[in-house]
Amino acid sequence: MARRRANGEGTITRRKDGRYQAAAYVYRPDGTRTRKFVYGKTRAEVAGKLTEIQEKTRQGIPAATSSMAFEDYLAYWLTTVAAGRLKPSTFTSYEVMARLYITPALGRKKLNRLSPADIRGFLTAFKDGCLCCLRGLDAARPREKRRCCAAGRCCRRSPSARTVQYAHAVMRAALQHAVREELIGRNVARLVETPAVAREEVKPLDRTEARILLKTARSHRLHALWLLLVSTGLRRGEVLALTWGDIDLDKRQLRVRRNLQRIRKDLVFGTPKTAR
To answer: Is the pTM here over 0.70, yes or no?
Structure first.
């Protein structure tokens, strides 16, 4: 005879459609508790999902629910998912984008009430607005301006097309995880067309310009840095992270094994952008 699950261990039942469902009490981001359901094709699959959410509850980590505010879900996703998967620089840029622009505009919407029209409207307003007006602006009062703008000191600097595309990418990634956790049935951000980005052709220094640069910098203490940048095409962070252990003077070889980036006020070593 199967052992009955004790109080607090959660329940697993089979639905009429043949799938299994499990339920357990979890923490909300505000510290209160609610009952959360997970689903799967087999009992073992559901038991694994149940164990996962219960482990988070034991650690005091809040679990996401479909009816939570989008700002709470973004905070949950950034803390429990993105922080462990993204590079520090990428995570920081995601967090800043969510905190300064996405949350003030869409944060009060319920996760399961977000629509393609909400995403499209935000991207349109974001593209056509100025950065100082958009930062911290409540979407419920779209024509309200910050004091700097009302006083005539508006920066009038609109987000670039790449920044708008980046905001879309952050929402798309967050909502895709919500789909995987079966909190929502579809990723509404994926239903909205990604803003186009006009690619500007890079014009590198020609041979004469490169020679003038290196000749001018010959007496500078960072001459070796400029020489490396011009002759190898390495990224700035890759050059700044080099140590003597990366250079073999006998074989005339240089290995790129990490990069150096400024994350807020700290200098952080990370892995190169690509394997090559």
So the answer is: no
